[in-house]
Amino acid sequence: MLLQGVYNGLSAACVYVLVALGLALVFSIMRILQFAHGEIYMLGAYIVYYLYSEYRLNYFVALIGAGLALGVLGILLERYMFRRLRGNMEPALLAAIGLSLIFQNAAVILFSSYNKWIEIPSMLSGVVMLVGASISWLRLSIGIIGLILVIALVLVIRLTKVGHAMVAISQDAESAALQGINVNRISAISMAIGCALAAIAGGLMGTLLGLSPYMGTFALTKAIAVIILGGIGSIPGAILGGFIIGLLDGLVPLYANSTIAAIVGFSFIILILLLRPKGLFGHD
């Protein structure tokens, strides 16, 4: 049973990390908290639902389509909305909250407020035994896809010029600009990557939790908890924080319920912040 909880926690953790990484990436580059990030997650889930369940595209093609569509939306949001607010925390926060409400209400009008479910692909049905415990092929696939995307993002940041530019801007945007780095271009790329990751995460979790116009609130809450625990703006912190929260969500319900799991998770975050106010990997 304990191993079963670990498997469930790890699969959820990979999705939490995807959403949190996008939020942390945008904050580290643009110095704004993108509170509409949860609605990007929600829109990604609905795009996957319609491409896969209604138009019968391959599930993985639908995931890629959602990532590309919301990546383009991220570029548009950065160019025509958040670029002018970059570094201005309060106006950007208000704009993001307003955008979140617009997306939520638009989703109610377009998709209705009734819950929808992404059908489990036949190739992902059934269970597999791992080290004496069972895990569904669906949860295993969600964990693998999430882990691959997390590793890919880390490699992009560590090994590419774009990634090095992101690190430079996150440390000192003005100095990076003086070195010839196009801050606007890197900001657009970071927003596109963040939105694409959130959209794919929504498409993955839609097979487990179902879809509603308000599902982004849950994702945003988890993402904020993860990046606060790991340290706001820290990519390694977001990864570690996501796995800690995911494991707590997988293990605590074995002995209590999901409500107690949430209480334990946030109590753990408070304890860490009392010891390390900037989070596990936080920095000035």
Summarize the structure.
This protein is mainly alpha-helical. It is built from eleven helices and two strands, in the order H-H-H-H-E-E-H-H-H-H-H-H-H.
Overall body shape: globular
Number of helices: 11
Order of helices and strands: HHHHEEHHHHHHH
Strand element count: 2
CATH class: Mainly Alpha
Contiguous runs where pLDDT drops below 50 for at least 5 residues: none
Assess the beta-strand content as a share of residues.
under 5%
Termini separation (Å)? 41 Å
- Averaged pLDDT, please? 88
Sheet bearing the most strands, described? 2 strands, antiparallel
Major β-sheet strand ordering: 1-2
Structural class: mainly alpha
By CATH, the topology is: ABC transporter involved in vitamin B12 uptake, BtuC
- Into which percent range does the helicity of residues fall? over 70%
Say what oligomer this is.
single chain
CATH architecture: Orthogonal Bundle
Total number of distinct structural domains: 1
Q: Which radius of gyration do the C-alpha atoms yield?
A: 18 Å
Describe the structure.
The chain is mostly helical. The protein has a single domain, classed as ABC transporter involved in vitamin B12 uptake, BtuC. A two-stranded antiparallel sheet has the order 1-2. The protein contains eleven helices and two strands. A hairpin with a 2-residue loop joins strand 1 and strand 2.
Draw up the topology in text:
Layout: H1 2-30, H2 37-54, H3 59-82, H4 89-111, E1 127-130, E2 133-136, H5 137-159, H6 161-171, H7 173-178, H8 183-209, H9 215-230, H10 235-251, H11 258-275
Antiparallel strand pairs: 1-2
